[in-house]
Amino acid sequence: MKFILTSIALCLVFPALMAQDTIPSVQPQDTVPAVAPAVEAAPVAEPAAEPAPQPSEPAPQAQEPAQAQPEPEKPAKKQSGEKKIYYGGYINFSFGTYTSIGIEPMIGYKIIPRLSVGVKIRYDYVQYKGSGPEYSYSNYGGSLFSRLSLFKRLYLHAEYATYNYENYDVPESPDRIWVPYFLVGAGFNQPIGGRASLNAQVLFDVLQNANSPYKSWEPFYSVGVSVGF
Question: How many domains does the chain have?
């Protein structure tokens, strides 16, 4: 009986001993991984502080061109006194039975750009060739005139003139007489540079005074130069 119990005990103990020899002992540190001590991170070096910027003048900004503001409409400027005045002179000539060649300085004033008035003085050398004896003499006088510009270069001309002539009705005893004229016609103005222009005009006497030495509707031709007209 004891032998049997002893055999059973051995059968139970022997496998247990064998199991201890085959299974490695487990140490607590083998199952729980060791925790490495925390490594303190090296302090990160802070970047060196940049020097404070020195105050400097602000860069000039490109100025934007000012937008052109529409100017208020201004009334048309009136012509200055200097530009209203014009002056010049003519060479007058007439051919036929009564031939005359003369000079005629003038000065005018523009009341408005198209309308002007003025004065002229005149001197003529005259030669007469008629049925009677031939003779020559000098005339002189003056006139008032007005001009109206129709287009850029064409103008109308009206002029009241009075000239002093030698009266040869009695050749032995000539007397000087004043003869009135009212001349109308047209002229042409051609600029030649700056304010100067060349003028040519044809006039007719519509008054036809009895003492006039000119035949009926005999034309007066004038060519001259003016400045500022």
Answer: 1
